[in-house]
Amino acid sequence: MTNKTILNDAHRALGAKMVDFGGWDMPLNYGSQIEEHHAVRRDAGMFDVSHMTVVDLHGTRTRDFLRHLFANSVDKLKTRGKALYSCMLNERGGVIDDLIVYFLSEDFFRVVVNAATHDKDLAWIEKQARAFEVQVAERADLAMIAVQGPNARAKVQSLLSPATREAAAKVGKFAAVEGDGLFIARTGYTGEDGYEIIVAEKDAVALWSKLKDADVAPAGLGARDTLRLEAGMNLYGQDMDETITPWEAGLAWTVSLEPGRDFIGRAAIEKQKADGVSRTLVGLVMDEKGVLRHGQRVATPQGDGEILSGTFSPTLGKAIAFARVPAGANAGVEVDIRGKLVPVRLVKYPFVRDGKACEGI
Amino acid sequence: MNEIPGDLKFMKSHEWARVEDNGNVTIGISDHAQGLLGDLVYVELPSVGDEVKAGTACAVVESVKAASDVYAPVSGEVLAVNSALGDKPETINEDAYGEGWIFVVKPSNLAEESEELLDPDAYAESIEDDEH
Question: Are residues A250 and A227 in the same domain?
């Protein structure tokens, strides 16, 4: 069965080309994916991300529970509204999902997980929550709209009441405020400033229309993918999964190995780190014409790897990719495109931040 | 959808062929095909002088979404390629039947091979079948 977000009719009315994404009927684009990409980099665009799963966790031991559940440390969350990006690992250290967690009060944290992993995530969270007597409540009554781009915050703020506007204008990066019935988080998946707004389903269509009237460009999953890859952000299922540890997915920065916290998967990834990690995730740029794509073979002097996420970068005008390659590979790297070996450069990502190519790209 | 010019012949795989007054054949992909692919970002052209065989892949068009082979509708020698597509592959999105042409061949077996191609009405019908 295909799921539809509350905005499905709105997408169709805008002439969206719809695709199946993780069991959801979602807009791929509304005409030109590249124009939508540029709208986000240069002005403001909006994405329906209501297919993502919002889970509210309640209980006096919620923080303790999340110390155990996540590879990143929720002890970094000291201020109400603050957010943290983390992986949730299995006992073998493989990534069950990546997510954002918001600290709302000592007995209330909110987690947003991916759509395609909905069932296994909820089953895992519920199973682990029992020992901590934490209540797990999926919020299917909520929709979510991401508004992203250099003018995104101003355009959203223009629609808010004075009090909420002030709060939203003041909120720092990677934190959220509430007001006007909205949960307004300064987070995103594009490398631009902006908000991800969680809204009651019944109010979502009206919010979408108001944003449209404020000249925020509707953008589909196609642009979302090129934007997040330019921004150097991983996509679950493509860049990592349950067979891949954070060390192998370029996510070491999200793992907190402070002493005394026994999170699920810790023993396995500590052992892997001690033994030596044989594969690593790298950024690639191809200066020649063509497009890097998922599944292409990457030849290095240290052995073969493969492209995980690859695309044409509309901002750079050339192909970029994430690849998993043998540790130590750094020069003499080529990608097999239809039988032809094409040289690529290993680069430090992100590729693009705040509308501009990063240094060395 | 755009009007399909009446002087074109099509393959089911969405290539078009136009027999020019001098007998050479200009080849491209249909407006329907560019719509399916979305924004084109790269075109791999054949080389002038290549011998192409009807029904075999001889160029590649890549959109942000996917790479797709372009099959030769007719056999023959490649006389010209649209090198402007190197810098502006989106020309195919904008004008698939005109400025977005991909290559020209001097056909070697046109009479027989053109029998295999679809006229605009038959092609329009085959698109409709795909969509059901």
Answer: no
